Amino acid sequence: MSDLWSLFAVFCLFIGGLNGSQRRKSRSLCHLNSAESFYDFTAKDLNGKNVSMSEFHGHVVLAFGFQEPAENSYELMNGLKYVRPGHGFVPNFPLFEKRDVNGKKEDKIYSFFKSRCPAPDGFIDDLSNIRWSPVRNNDINWNFEKILIDHDGQPFARYTAPYEPNAMFDDIQTLMLTCQEQRRRIYHP
Q1: Digit-coded pLDDT (tens) for 78-95
Q2: Are 105 and 3 within 8 A, CB to CB?
Q3: Which end of the chain has fewer surrounding CB within 10 Å, N or C?
Q4: Is 117 a residue of the active site?
Q5: Which one of the listed residues 12, 30, 117, 179 is annotated catalytic?
Q6: What residue ranges in the chain does DSSP mark as E strands?
């Protein structure tokens, strides 16, 4: 496989212990640009159905990719349940089809994320791990690198793989409180 493949998973709040690269955990804040949003994109789920990301409008979303060698959704789900992370794990959030996250065939949603969110640690992985071309300084570095998206579909922060969702609690809570406050102002002026 010459390109880095990824499954794109989206969920509102998921607390879990999924390991990634052994590098240090770090995050970068994203650049605000209201001209385009996460909700402008569609993706195919594991069953091949087109899903508009606008279905997640009004929710705080955590998006991440992970490399998985599965050939089909059945094999993928069994891999998650019994191997990685294993222990009977069954996702309670939508999973989407494999896609390129870097290189010349890079999916548009990842181009969007990377245009708005700089690489958290400011460098690309060890060159021996790179299997795509061209290489850019803001490429997705490892499985489970995450993008936190606010309720308006604007990327807020990008996190390295070792950054577990429970360590993002303050960022998630801030975005949820902002959403609640905005709704309060709209519906109860």
Answers
A1: 988 998 888 999 989 898
A2: yes
A3: C
A4: no
A5: 30
A6: 5-11, 27-29, 42-44, 50-52, 61-66, 95-100, 146-149, 155-159
